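name: query_chain
kind: protein
chains: 1
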Amino acid sequence: MKRVFLIVLDSFGIGHAPDADRFGDAGSDTLRAVYQSEGFSVPNMEKLGLYHIEETPGEKTGVPLGAYGRLTEQSRGKDTTIGHWELMGIYSDEPLPVYPEGFPEEVLTAFSAATGRGVLCNRPYSGTQVIYDYGREHQKTGDLIVYTSADSVFQIAAHEELVPPETLYRYCRDARAILTGKHGVGRVIARPFVGEWPNFTRTANRHDFSLLPPGKTALDLLKEAGLDVIGVGKIGDIFAGQGLTESIPTRGNNDGMEKTVQLLEKDFHGLCFVNLVDFDSSYGHRNDVKGYADALMAFDHWLGDFLPKLGEEDLLILTADHGCDPSTESTDHSRERVPLLLYGKGICPTDLGTRNSFADLGSTVLSLFGLDDSKIFGESFAHLIKKEE
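structure:
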């Protein structure tokens, strides 16, 4: 194996996990929600085996071109950080802290002392609603809008004319230094916005500041073996740069897909790890079923051009990090299983069934590159997908 292109369709769950009720997500099914959208069609993912995966909607036509199955998360969480960590071999037995009542005074006092600014909101809030409700006061006072969600996040919103993005990033680093130990949230997120009330809009200058993974991941092992490990999109943020040889930021799905095509034309040896965030941030969290469906169809159209360009020793893997069912009342992530679709000229089309951990994927990537996967959590299925020579 020379190159693996691993693309995470952020939040593309395919049905509630066995323990979804413990997370308040019984019945959540992101794929089924968008499948019912008028005109929904993803023929290229269908050819790879999407509808052959257990309990998915859609007609199981033809023989899949790829290996297919579904992954079940074992870690105690349903957020981006823990999902990606588990994909790369980290099992998290303790959930990251969440703040349904807002952050404690000790955190806010330290944050205000570090930034020299006051704090507005300090509650779980929709990211678009919070700037509508607090944006004018922020402009008047200079205080920062701090909010959270059902995920382990400390989010800071500020108007770019008042607080330039680089200054906001500095404030986020201040918060990251404060939010450790028992208050070690998964991500501190910069949420810059522009415009005038009531038409404030968030910009593409979002930036995440994550915890360092608590142990070695598949990325570290690939890098230590001298392989290229290229993160596209927010991968660099999620892993705090650890285990990467190169990090390429993007401005949404279209930019991420374009950057991936550029890397397909580049001669490298290793892993290209891509996150396409718009499914989650622009549609799942906004309960926009039609938008989510359209974004999946746009990706599938791109996929149709991408697949024929893969080289003889290339592998494409499609998966997700959690669900975010846009058809439920909740705007938060949902505890779901995620798809596993693999395609390459050296891959044997096969039903991989239901895997017990997201980490099986990371273990498999290591195995395909001839590396020892016993150092991380997960069980490789490389032996199931290699074509006999």
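note: The two ends are 14 Å apart (CA to CA).
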